[in-house]
Amino acid sequence: xxxxxxxxxxxxxxxxxxxxxxxxxxxxxxxxxxxxxxxxxxxxxxxxxxxxxxxxxxxxxxxxxxxxxxxxxxxxxxxxxxxxxxxxxxxxxxxxxxxxxxxxxxxxxxxxxxxxxxxxxxxxxxxxxxxxxxxxxxxxxxxxxxxxxxxxxxxxxxxxxxxxxxxxxxxxxxxxxxxxxxxxxxxxxxxxxxxxxxxxxxxxxxxxxxxxxxxxxxxxxxxxxxxxxxxxxxxxxxxxxxxxxxxxxxxxxxxxxxxxxxxxxxxxxxxxxxxxxxxxxxxxxxxxxxxxxxxxxxxxxxxxxxxxxxxxxxxxxxxxxxxxxxxxxxxxxxxxxxxxxxxxxxxxxxxxxxxxxxxxxxxxxxxxxxxxxxxxxxxxxxxxxxxxxxxxxxx
Length: 395
Ligand code: NAI
Ligand code: MG
Hints:
Elements: E1 4-11, H1 15-28, E2 33-37, H2 42-48, H3 54-63, E3 65-70, H4 76-82, H5 97-104, E4 109-115, E5 126-127, E6 133-134, E7 139-145, E8 155-157, H6 161-168, E9 185-187, H7 193-210, E10 214-219, H8 227-239, E11 246-251, H9 252-258, E12 268-271, H10 273-286, E13 294-298, E14 303-307, H11 326-338, H12 342-358, H13 383-394
Parallel strand pairs: 1-2, 1-3, 3-14, 7-12, 10-11, 10-12
Antiparallel strand pairs: 4-7, 4-13, 5-6, 8-9, 13-14
Bound molecules: 1,4-dihydronicotinamide adenine dinucleotide and magnesium ion.
């Protein structure tokens, strides 16, 4: 097979630090690929009025696989002020390029695995009945719908009359019929059958492929009867094609409680956009937080792999860099899973696990230090040293 081409989008801040580290690991594991740099992020907003240039979209359209570091986003007003003077007042509007990528390529399946590595000092622990403590091993994979739900942007403050008229056809609007429009804000939650099927199917197929016993629909169907209800109905249908996988259903609020009670009981979870966002952050916090949280954004043609963290601007200029590269490295392993190179992906995860378990080389977050230039003196490893240790374990 011809060498794969991977579009490499480091972006801003620590994205530029961690993305090359994941490439070092992918190369060391023998993945046959070539990496093509693509521009994305704040600098391209400031200089060109577009944080997601067309040439980057073209590269992804052609090569279909992307590694993404992180970008810096700033509020509307600040974004407008930082735009280079010759572009100001010409109608350029800032939007988040990662949201842009999800929309342009319909990256509707967001996968966020949350697994504890034994020996990680950031792992969640709880009190046991005998007064001691126990450290449950979490192995949850959240499937979050990425393009619909509450995040579609169907929103109004001061809704126009025709919107109010449409809403007034629903009996539940009655108590609000007399509220003046300027005193009203509306955000809509929209699910489609097609996208709901895609995310639920993806969850079941993953559970089957990676040997999980259950898929949990984590929504709120007792209240959100139509949208959460649709996801539950679809899940019941899809489960019939996967008789060995149990279908469970939990409410998002209850799930956030059970998260710290018995997180080890759950395997694959599937949710709409917002609840998936919430429950995946909840699980990530149990297994090491931002330094460990990897993710994939998968569409039917294009897939982009990225750590969940942002650009952490306060650490971007530290030399040597101190941030944890593991989230990005694990995102690279997810790319390998996606292209059918599971053995290589497992080797990377095993090497990360060995480094974490051994505990000799740890970035500041794993030592529970406050980040900053002094952490290396206090015994924290640099970003590069963590990658080096992982490479060593790969052999
Ligand atoms: P952030 O994720 O960049 O950083 C929050 C804090 O988490 C950091 O200050 C640091 O203490 C810690 N952290 C993050 N990554 C780490 C790593 N690899 N190793 C060790 N510690 C790590 O979130 P924040 O500060 O809210 O946002 C900074 C910028 O990033 C903003 O402009 C925001 O819009 C953007 N952002 C971008 C995302 C993306 O590219 N997908 C996601 C989240 C935020
Ligand atoms: Mg990211």
